Amino acid sequence: MPTTTYHPPHTITPTIVNLIAQISEVVGRLTVLTDNSKELRLRRINRVRTIRGSLAIEGNNLSEEQITAILDGKRVIAPPREIQEVRNAIAAYERFGSWSVEREADLLEAHSVLMSGLIDDAGIYRHSGVGVIAGERVIHMAPPAKRVSILMQDLFGWLAATDDHPLIASSVFHYEFEFIHPFADGNGRMGRLWQTLILNRWNPLFADIPVESLIYEHQEEYYDALQQSTDKADSAPFIEFMLKMILDAIASATPQVSPQVTPQVKALVEAILGEMSRDELQAVLGLKDRKSFRELYLKPALEEGLIEMTIPDKPNSKLQKYRLTEKGQRSVRSPRLS
């Protein structure tokens, strides 16, 4: 790729330096401690959270349970467009490892996958003006359509040449991408996807870190950070915001439990996704002995208040299923069980 003189303006603040140090430390620790036996379960859980977070920011109302059902090929009753958005996101993450962060053609292909069946110009830069609107207020008017192609070429040229730390480079790319707003629709989810792709090249751990779910929870701050960076003509506010979200997401992505909780209960809590029957849980955990499962896994988890029955007044019902309580959900998202 030809060299570029384009350098997106961004100041490296003490806060940014400190956050990079913290993130690098946690990433290093998690890379060493990650247990492959639970990695597949966590990957699935975090992938669902990532998809739900990214699409929820764009107004998709499907729950984690519904997204899981679509992932499993089950029928879901919901608006067709929202189902299509989820299917597209699942397809995009399945292709995740085949895309190169520095190939503009790959970004266009990724947009085509994400927006297939949703807009006519999937995978094609916009041909008209666009703006970011909140209510009746125009927050940002993107550059004219005729400038999009050259601006994107400059951005990819910078990304290929920059010596910035990937945590910084990914955030700068994300901000600049949103500023350019190169597509007619889908710019938010594409910007977040490409930042994750850049981070994944630095450390594969990021393929399954649900940063999107935290951005959704801090959606107003996300847009405020974008606006502050635009006002200052410096993406430092957005970099700081994204690094905080990344640090929080890493800290919550790999469940850990306190010493008084047994490994069996820990495994059960990590395995539950939505509502699951006893047979489904035993299958996921690879357990055949029903008595052992009841005494070592199910009963203690119920007594700890980490899971609950869906039909509590009929504990022996054939339709009985189990789900995480609020306490159990917190345990999956936080470093320690409450």
- What number is the mean pLDDT? 87
* Structural class label: mainly alpha
- The total beta strand count reads 4
The total domain count is 2
Large-scale geometry: globular
Main sheet record: 2 strands, antiparallel
| CATH class assignment of the largest domain | Mainly Alpha
Secondary-structure element order, N to C:
HHHHHEEHHHHHHHHHEEH
Side-by-side strand order of the widest sheet: 1-2
Q: How many helix segments?
A: 15
Radius of gyration: 22 Å
**CATH fold name of the largest domain, please?**
Fic-like fold
- Approximately how much beta-strand content do the residues carry? under 5%
Q: What CATH architecture of the largest domain do you see?
A: Orthogonal Bundle
Helix content, binned percent: 55-70%
CATH superfamily of the largest domain: Fido-like domain
Taking the alpha carbons of the first and last residues, their distance comes to 51 Å
